[in-house]
Structures are given as structure tokens and as C-alpha cells.
Design brief:
The chain is an alpha+beta fold. It is 38% helix and 15% strand. The protein has an 8-stranded mixed β-sheet, with helices on both faces. The structure holds zinc ion.
């Protein structure tokens, strides 16, 4: 079976995203690029998470052709492919429908500010809002890609969230940090206060420290 490891990792991270409340039933979609093989493991369309095993995760090429798997890939495959084609620092894409972050996608175009250490570290900046386009369209992929810029997140107007990363785990962490930030901001505003943002200088320091140091470290002695 092609990309067994990647397909298995997608199944596991799906459970983490369900536990975090970012996806449910058949919502959202997740992919990993195997850059050397130019192959992508990607979630199928309309198959409930609870019923999936590794063979239910599809394998496609960079043109979106199905190479292996029982099901057609997610109809949002354009959204994944555009990042793999255009950015060599992206090897994983996570698209979710988080209830709190999506609130900001129906309010307007102000980016989600950086109010939490966690967001500074794993996102490294404010989260832009991409303009509306229809689900599954090439236009949605293009406007979302453009809004993301060289960052790793964008909230999709009237829809949800996309995060990208060098690996699946960092893309997943960014999704969870966006939703935690949205939750904190909504709570502060519901109390009648505008939350303070971290300074750009502090965000840069936290991001750099995280990228340089955040990895498992062997216990000494
Ligand atoms: Zn969606």
C-alpha cells in the first residue's frame, strides 16, 4: 500500500482534531505530501471519521489524479494542491471547521490578533481572513492561498480554517492555537474588554525560540 505511514498519521491526527472540537462527522480535510515521491495522502470525501481505516485515506498525485484508495479524495483537493505546488516549505495541510475561529470569518476582514504565547510560538503572527469563495472551487484555493501569504494560517470567510506546516503535527498545532486564540478573544470581548495583543517584537522572539528549541529532549543521566 502506498504511503501507509502517512495515511496512518492522518487517521491519528483526525482523532486529535475531533477531540479538540475542530472537526466532526465528515467535516474538514487533511493531507500530507511525500515530496520525494510527489504523492499526497488525503482524506476522502463524505466518509465519516469514525468509520475510516488507512485504506480509506486516498493517494493522489500533484494533478489530483486518484492513484490508490477506495474513495474519491475530498472535493477540497485544490486547496491542498495549491500549497504543495507553490510552496516548498509546506508538506501538510489541515482544513477544519472550528466553531470559534469561524466566527471571525463571518464578521469582516480584520485579522485575528496574537493574544496568546501559544499562538505566537506556533503561528508567529496574526491570522488573516480570506475572502469568500464557494467550497470545492479553484477560486477558493486561490483566495485562501493568497491570504495565507508566506504564513501558515488563514480563516476562510463563512467557512472555516486552513493551516499548513512542514509536517502534519505543526499544522495541527497551529489549528488548535487559532481556535484557542479565538476562544480567548471572544471571551474577553463578551466581558466588554478588548484583549491586549502581544507586541510584534515579542511575537518574533517567541516564534524564533519555538522553532529553534521545541523538540523532544532526551532526559540526562
Ligand atoms: Zn470545509
Amino acid at each position: 500500500m502506498k504511503l501507509l505511514e502517512e495515511r496512518t498519521r492522518i487517521l491519528k491526527i483526525s482523532q486529535d482534531l475531533i477531540a479538540a472540537g475542530l472537526i466532526r462527522d465528515t467535516q474538514g480535510n487533511i493531507s500530507i505530501l511525500h515530496r520525494d515521491q510527489s504523492l499526497i495522502a488525503i482524506t476522502p470525501s463524505a466518509v465519516p471519521y469514525a468509520e475510516r481505516d488507512a485504506e480509506d485515506i486516498s493517494v493522489i498525485d500533484l494533478e489530483g489524479n486518484l492513484l490508490e484508495g477506495r474513495w474519491k479524495p475530498t472535493s477540497e483537493f485544490h486547496l491542498h494542491l495549491i500549497f504543495y505546488r507553490e510552496r516548498d516549505d509546506v508538506n501538510a495541510v489541515v482544513h477544519t471547521h472550528p466553531p470559534k475561529a469561524t466566527v471571525f470569518g463571518v464578521l469582516g476582514s480584520d485579522p485575528l490578533p496574537v493574544v496568546l504565547n501559544e499562538a505566537a510560538m506556533v503561528i508567529g503572527g496574526a491570522v488573516p481572513i480570506a475572502p469568500y469563495a464557494r467550497p470545492g472551487s479553484v477560486e477558493l484555493a486561490e483566495v485562501t492561498f493568497k491570504a495565507t501569504g508566506d504564513g501558515n494560517t488563514a480563516i476562510m470567510a463563512h467557512h472555516g480554517l486552513i493551516t499548513v506546516g512542514q509536517d502534519l503535527e505543526s499544522a495541527c498545532r497551529a489549528s488548535i492555537a487559532v481556535e484557542a486564540s479565538a476562544d480567548t478573544i471572544i471571551t474577553a470581548r463578551s466581558m466588554g474588554f478588548e484583549p491586549n495583543s502581544l507586541s510584534p517584537e515579542e511575537v518574533d522572539i517567541l516564534r524564533k525560540t519555538y522553532l529553534d528549541n521545541y523538540k523532544p529532549k532526551k532526559a540526562e543521566g
